[in-house]
Fold this protein.
Amino acid sequence: NKKISFDVLPFFTGIEPEELKSVLFCVIIQNQRYYTGRDLLTIKGLMYDMTSSIIEHNILSSDFQYLQPFFYNHPYSIRCELGVGDDDVYMQNAKKRAMDIYQLLFPNAADALFFDYWIYDQCFSGAAECEADYADDMEEIHEYSIQAEVAKLKFLYHFQDKYRHVIVKKLKGYENEEDEAFLGRNRVVCYSDGKGFNAEKLICTQIENQSLPLVSFVSFEGEFIFSVYDDRGCDIVFATPEAFAAHYNDLKPFFLEYDVDLMKSRMDEIEKNRK
């Protein structure tokens, strides 16, 4: 990140103030583009962190929700199939295909990763939770919940201790979120800074066990996010149509057949707009 000071330029003259309140602002310095989502009405004379990547700007913004299904929620995205073949090779194939896609997308490793930490209220008013006859069952359920929460906290602490990170707080849940205990979610963005991530371990864990937070890998140069949602498949979400088109053919061998027509129509639209 670079700190850059600048003034709002005269070419904004004649634009109504309300039109400037929520935009992606771009500054070009030495042929390099820098983006910020700051309110332009408060920009003059101030210093701001500027990022040279649209996708980095997105994942650091609370306006960028990034909820499943990623493929259907983002127009420039590709869905790939992982688990293929008979039962005896299904999981092995899922892991291999996931790593093949990762290596194709990240020849020099990921720049960052992020995951959500969901927050729930565990306090409820009411009568006794269960009769004595069910006490053992409830204790087992509670113990499972406790261990699951401990595992998530260990996961969170590991990444916060090891990597430079940014927490994006107060993100919303799903629109149809019916769980009254849901309080919110925080996005934890961790930067590699040359340390690297154990991508194979994280991806295999996601394929085998979805109880831990879903980890997404990010390329700032490639302008995309790579997310393995489970053993069935993964989504690659691109920030721009150019980034989508640049990876479309390379990823074709992995396309999920069910969504091939939709991906092709997205590519056709991009090519049409280029003319």
Observations:
- Helices lie at 54-59, 70-73, 87-105, 135-162, 199-208, 241-251, 260-274.
- The first helix runs from residue 54 to 59.
- The CA atoms of residues 116 and 187 lie 4 Å apart.
- The radius of gyration is 22 Å.
